[in-house]
Amino acid sequence: MKAIHIIAGLLALLAGAVALYATKGAPLHRRSGWVFAVAMATMTTTAAVIAQFFSPNRVNVVAAVLTFYLVATGVLAVRRTVPQMRALATAFMLVAVAIGAHALALGVEAVSSTAHRVDGIPAPPLFMFGSVALLAAFGDLRMLRAGRIEGARRLARHLWRMSYAMWIATTSAFLGQAKFIPEPLRKLPLLVAPVLLVLVVMAYWLVKVHRRPRVAATVR
Asked: Which of 8, 57, 152, 191 falls 20 to 30 Å from 49 in CA-CA distance?
């Protein structure tokens, strides 16, 4: 299972990089996006199983479930209308609320503990995971109450969720697993650069989408 997790993770990083930089809505973006989504689903599922049953780590379970949720809802945003995905979107929203509350509780536990960590992770990432999950769940609620999501808002929902999932995977690979990177490349600027680059590209596309709403019409 660990081998499947690693292979899926590497494939997700490669496909995600192509999808992130490709023109949104273009054939290359769609094909690489599907590879990214399938690879991420495989990686996060195996990560959750490993962290829950084989190498217990509550933080890794939180990160895996949150990332799976972001990818799944990101795909649904451009593949289904709100009426078509209402039941599934509601279920995912409840998952986001649960994982967000759990992440915040772990953050409080980390702050209160002597080591100021939970399973080796300090409080700030846990509060970040919790906040992102709850904000995403709030976005789900607004969408469900409106009964529709179209144009730039629809594409932005897809972009930020897929991009943030990519950011989590990139951070985990380059910072969380830095010890597995060849020593000549294990320099802080080289490790941080891909992580920051994902955020920069995500911000670029979100700004572009909101400034040019007609871009959303290219996604079907």
From this structure: 191
